[in-house]
Design goal:
The protein starts with a helix and ends with a helix. Helix content is 88%, strand content 0%. By secondary structure, it is an all-alpha fold.
């Protein structure tokens, strides 16, 4: 497998894995926050600012992590 194909697979695969993880985790946290913490009342601004910062930053970190894991596995597999 070409190095560029492996890199493309790592980038795309990492993005898909990170997006799926972020959607599931963020959805779960928002659900818990809505059901047991804040309810139907307007959420405080600090909670919304925190969510608007943590969700994208967490997604980018997970994208890098999953992409790196895929890249490392493809590199090891390619050498064998």
């Amino acid at each position: 497998m070409s190095r560029w194909v492996a890199l493309l697979l790592a980038i795309v695969g990492g993005a898909i894995a990170a997006y799926t993880t972020v959607v599931l985790v963020a959805g779960g946290l928002l659900g818990v926050g809505w059901l047991w913490v804040f309810g139907d009342d307007p959420w405080p601004s600090w909670a919304m600012v925190g969510l608007h910062l943590l969700i994208p930053i967490g997604g980018l970190i997970l994208w890098a992590l999953f992409g790196w894991i895929i890249w490392a596995r493809l590199r090891i597999h390619r050498r064998s």
